[in-house]
Structure formats: C-alpha cells, structure tokens
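pls ignore typos typing on phone
protoporphyrin IX containing FE + seq
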Amino acid sequence: MHPFSPEMKQCPYPHYDRWRDESPVLWNAEMGAWLVLGYREAVSVLDDHRAFSSANSVFSPQAENVGGFPSIINTDEPRHKKLRALAAKAFTPKSIERDWAPRIQRIVDEQLDGIDAATFNVVGDLAYPLPVRMIAEIIGVESERFPQFKYWSDEIVKRIGVPAEHVANPAEFQTAIMELSTYFYQQMELRRRQPRDDLFTRLLEAEVDGERLTLAELQAFLVLLLVAGNETTTNLIGSAVRVLAEDPGLMRRLREDRSLVWNLIEESLRYEAPIQGFYRKARRDVEVGGKQVRAGDALCVLYGAGNRDQREFDCPAEFSLDRARRDHLAFGKGIHYCLGANLARIEAGIAINAVLDRFETLTLQEGYEVEWRLTPFFRGMVEYPVNYSAATRTAPAR
Ligand code: HEM
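k done
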C-alpha cells in the first residue's frame, strides 16, 4: 500500500507499526522508495546530508531535480546554508516573541471574537486563518488578502509529494503557481522602487556569494514560506484542540497549570506529526537499518512513524502530557530542521491559551465524523466543529 493513499488517511499508525515490525527500513514498490519507519534510522538519514540529498525532498521520489522550484527545502549544501541564513534571523525565538507575539495574540482574539454563538469551528475559525495571516504579515504582503493566499497555498500543497503525472487538476495547480508568482513579481517591483522594512525587501536585497537571488530563487523562497507554515500549523492547532475536547479532565488540568500548554503542543506534534514524511535521495551506496540502499535510491523518511516507534517511546500510541522525551521528529532534524518551528510553537501556544481562557468545555458536535485532509504528506482534519460553554473564571497569570 502507498503510505499516502486515501486508505491510510483514517489512521496510518497501525500500518506503520506492522511495516516497522517487518523492518525499520522497508522497500515500498507503490511509492518506489525505501520507507524509513524507525526513529533511529530516520535520525541517521536526516543527520547525514552528505549521504542523502534533499534535491527531491518535497516532490516525487523519482524526480531527478526540481530546478523549477529552487527553494531551501530542496537545496543541498553549500548553497542551502547560505540561503537559509538570509531568513533565519526573522525566525529566532527572540524575534518572534519581540516582533510578532502581540500581533499573533491580536489575530487570535479577532478570530475568536468572530465565532458563532453556538459553534466553534476549530479549523475554519482559528487554526486555518491564524498561520496564513501571520506569515503574510511577516513576509510583508497584505494579510487581508489571506483567503487568496490560502487558496494558492492549498493548490500548491496538493501537488507536494505527488508525481507530476498524478497531480489532480494540473491546470488549477499551474494557474495557482502563475497567479502567485505574478503577485510576488508585482510586489517585488513595488519594493524595488520603494524598499520597505519587511522580510520580502530583505530577501530582495540580500546577496549570496556577491550575487542577488535569482527571480526563481526569490519566488521559491516566498512560496515556501507561505506554504510551509500554513497547513502544518493549522494541523497542529487542530489536533491540540481536539485533545482538549476529547479529555475534559486534561483540559481542566491545563487551565490550572498553563506551563503544561507546552507539553500539550510537543506531545501533539509527536502524536500527530502534521507532516508525516519527506523524501531524500541516496548519493552513494549506504546501509540504513540493515538494508543496502543504492546510490540514486529514494527514501521516504516518515516522521510520523518514527514518533510512534515503540523502541524509543514508551506506549507511543498513548497521548501523555507527562512524557519526558521531547525529541520527536515532527520538525525534522539536521540541516533542514524546520525554520518556522519557533513561530509554529508560539502561534500554537497563544492559540491554546486563548482557547483555555475562553472556553470551559468543548464538545464535538453530535453526529460529526472527523474527516482527514487527503493532501499526501500532511495529517490534519478537514474541520472540527465543537459546541462550547464559555469560561466563567478569569484567566490565571502566565
Ligand atoms: C507545526 C508546524 C510545522 C511543522 C510540523 C513543520 C515541519 C517541517 C519539517 C518536518 C521540515 C523539514 C523538512 C526536511 O527535512 O526536508 C520543515 C522545514 C521547513 N519549514 Fe516547517 N513546519 C512547520 C511550520 C513552519 C512555519 C510556520 C514555517 C514558516 C516560516 C516553516 C518553514 C519551513 C522552512 C522554510 C523549512 C525548510 C528549512 C530548510 O530546508 O532548511 N515551517 N518544516
């Protein structure tokens, strides 16, 4: 079975466990790639960028190169490091806290002020608009156009991990890419004439090895930033709120002790990795988990499977706020470790604290069956509508 097939979507974990029991590294003929299912094996691949290239990391495992999308996520060293350095400063915990936390709080409050009197649609009302509005503001593009960004981002996400010949509605995908590129091009022209104090202008003016980024590199950078943090952060906030709704005792515990919000976020990341896996390609013959991988072979590193490896995590199928280990793989590992991890954690932290401040209980709407999004690499709910009772007490100091 293909690891991203619709049949796996309902719950991929028993399949991962069965495969891992067979071998932590297993050839999957449907995907045409080695599945890396064990935690240690995944770490060994992610940590070794010399043996494993990221050139095809987000597209088809068979892709020779993705020259049309030269972004950091599928660029190898030495260029990757230089490109990453251009944006890294904008995403340190300090700059997120200082520059963006108040803005995140305001967006969360606006979104929650606007919810219906009876129902809170966790995804549509909060988890979905927050990351896209935020990243638009960080890049410096008009965040009020967020439904348009979200549409472009959704169309592109559908293409990620899918071989070109299997892309559903390729025309829509091409149109989305063209519209987004044109938009970024117009924004670039505006900044050329009049530079602004934003990440877009900094990337436009930045130099690597004495040269400005090419137009394709600049556009790929912006597209990656726009896309990378959207569905992922939406999925994180969605799964964390779902845990609160399903376990009122746990929700009470968190309301009393807000330091546990960070445990909730890390455990949600481990339990339902918002990105289930990405590809690598072996540059040379190399052994992984006892299997001989040949130069040119594709590997799909399944973060979602590594996070549920019973050889590493006690009772991995249980959600536990008290788990001591935090070194899950949800943000990857090694040189491509998620650039937006701090932003995602802070957005989720502010969102969860606001939910705890405002709601006493959350109950999934009667008769609603959770449906999972079918986008290949991602794990997240289409919607999670809850009925709620409002909190009566004031929020504790944090
Ligand atoms: C819960 C939310 C998120 C999750 C689970 C997530 C997950 C990941 C993972 C697994 C990788 C590693 C890719 C690889 O090894 O090939 C990655 C890379 C990346 N992420 Fe995130 N991400 C999240 C949020 C964000 C946000 C908010 C941004 C916005 C800036 C972002 C930007 C990036 C970028 C630019 C990379 C590429 C880094 C590199 O290649 O050096 N991510 N992310």
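The pocket of protoporphyrin IX containing FE is lined by residues 54, 57, 72-73, 84, 91, 131, 135, 224-225, 228-229, 232-233, 236, 274-275, 278, 303, 330-332, 336, 338-340, 343-344 (CB under 6 Å). The longest strand covers residues 359-364. more later
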